[in-house]
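Dock coenzyme A; give full complex structure.
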Amino acid sequence: MRPIVSGIDVGSPTFAANRDAAVADAATLRDRQQWAIGGGNGRERSIERHLGRGKVLVRDRIDMVIDTDTPFLELSTLSGYGQYDDAAPGAGIVTGIGMVHGVPWMFIANDATVKGGSLLPVSIKKHVRAQEVAEQNDLGVIYLVDSGGAFLPLQDEIFPDKDHFGGSFYRQARLSAMGLPQLSVVLGGCTAGGAYVPALSDEVIMVEGIGRIFLGGPPIVKAALGEIIEPDDLGGAALHTHTSGVSDYIASTEQEAYGRLREICETVNKRRIDDRQSWVDYAAPEPPLYDADELYGVVSADDRIPFAAREVIARLVDGSKFQDFKPEWGATMVTGFARIWGHLVGIIANDGIIFSEAALKSTHFIELCEQRRVPLVFLQNTSGYMVGRDAEAGGIAKDGAKMVSAVANATVPRYTVLTGGAYGAGNYGMCGRGFNPRFLFAWPNSRIATMSAATAQTVLVDIRLAGLKGADTTEEEIAAMRAEVADQYETQSDPYYATSRLWDDGLIDPVNTRDILGLCLALAARQDEPPAGRPLVYRM
Ligand code: COA
């Protein structure tokens, strides 16, 4: 593989302007993450109350469980951002991947300082998504339970449908049957449906004085049976460990519980993060030739100005080396092999509008990666597939469909990073959320929508005007229509709007992309080789 030779002038005014905008974006991201982590909107009071009860804050709990000096890859930190009157930082639940004795685990931990750890619609989505990531990446799940259960005022958005609360129990039972250990530490309330999180776990630890499990709490018992009973007598750690057997271990402190949990993790017989299986080609990692910080200056501050995919790749891959596949053809798609933290990958990156040739080249490259069993990384920055008479006459619909089919049916692990625009069907062809990549991360400059705000203004206003069938419409009315559409599209394509709704697994600072992908690839490398798929039918 040859190193990419960068053509970027790091001393140019354009580079400086891009860098200033991207550094500001990264600072905004950090501030908002800090808001989600540290409190805000009057949450200080519930944090104080939590600490006053001798309880540990949710992220400190995770820190007490994972191996010292190892990273925790938190997912969707900004879920819930800008929703629910901003009263649900992180949607009241922390999910992510951390190591225990060198084995990676998925953590699903309630944040009791947010609405008592009760589950809003987006919290359930986050819980279920974490279970999906666990399934795809062969991870056991550690549940740190401290929750008021379903957020009752929104019960219709939480309870009845597929992938609502019931879906999380369904998945938990099935994950256990797949051999993925399900372990719970009960650190607070587990009421009604919430009781099933520990009850469905393979092993359960309860902490005395704070952990409680009951199908109906004291108020319900009083109403139903006239019994007046203290919470600990109804569902405390002693009752469930000594009498009911719902819990397997009792701990007098959180510290003791996490020590016990780590002991349990030593016996689960799962592969360590460094236990690479032979199907994935691996070489000693080497850093890129170009500094990751330069990504800030590479990415255009103005999203209408394209930026070169190879310049991004040069700052992500080992030694900046890239085996460029078909570089002279289908130039708006960059495809080729590289290594990220030693793992061989096939990279597909947009470098302009997707024409037929670019779609065919991507399809060909995906087939190569399928045949060679090489994981795929999509760097998505697309305004979509080419439109217009020439493109249609050239069969862009069937060529785009070939690419979409190949992406949908690829059986090797797939990962997506939104580095810029994620518009139109191009988002699907580049392995958007609907195509089930193992992980999808987005940069803070990214935008996701059917089309850009600028295009939508024209399209939607033209459609409305056509509907008015020649009725007099003043220039002011047309301008107002345009402004309304632009406003809607700007709001809804904002990356914070997207991440709040879990359309991705989190916004990431571009400089961390290589490390995050490296960890994701290491998860796949410790799994068995995924079975190959059947031959596809391509429209010729
Ligand atoms: N639905 C909606 N809101 C809930 C909730 C739920 N299931 N559980 C807790 N909350 C809210 C409370 O209304 C309160 O909101 P506020 O901060 O806006 O006032 C906040 O969470 C904290 O609750 P609070 O009861 O003051 O905290 P606590 O630490 O003393 O007790 C629980 C926490 C979880 C033990 C307790 O709130 C509880 O028992 N909740 C109901 C459990 C239940 O019956 N769930 C049924 C699920 S199917």
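Observed: The CA atoms of residues 153 and 371 lie 51 Å apart.
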